[in-house]
Amino acid sequence: MKQKKIPERLCLGCNVSKDKRELIRVVKTKDGEIFLDKTGKANGRGAYICNNPACLEKAIKSKRIARSLSAEIPAQIYDSLRQAMEQ
Questions:
Q1: What is the pTM of this model?
Q2: Hey, CA dihedral for 72, 75, 77, 82, is it positive or negative?
Q3: Under a CB-based contact definition with an 8 Å cutoff, are residues 27 and 44 in contact?
């Protein structure tokens, strides 16, 4: 029996490929709306980050999330990412 391939994504903080389900997804829709995607299935461009505050701070400092989504990221998105990591 063929084993199903587990999708991997690159963390924008530490640059390591990990299982998609372990990462937190930030989505930018066609309308330019940016939000956290808890399901991992929302339509739009996705950027992934580890569930690690150090990775988040590194990604914020280097503006990698903003560059990946080609958009300015509102401060409340970063705040909600920090809260999601604390849970």
A1: 0.90
A2: positive
A3: yes
